[in-house]
Amino acid sequence: MSDSALNPRTITLAWTGASGAPYGLRLLQQLIAAEYRVNLLISSAARVVLATEHGLKLSGNPEKAKAQLVAHLECDSALLEVCGKDDWFSPVASGSAAPKQMVICPCSMGTVASVAHGLSDNLLQRAADVVQKERGQLIMVVRETPFSTQHLANMHALSQRGVTIMPAAPGFYHQPQSIDDLVDFMVARILDHLKIEQVLVPRWGYDQRSS
Ligand SMILES: Cc1cc2nc3c(=O)[nH]c(=O)nc-3n(C[C@H](O)[C@H](O)[C@H](O)COP(=O)(O)O)c2cc1C
Question: Where does this protein hold dimethylallyl phosphate (predicted)?
Answer without folding.
Answer: 173, 189
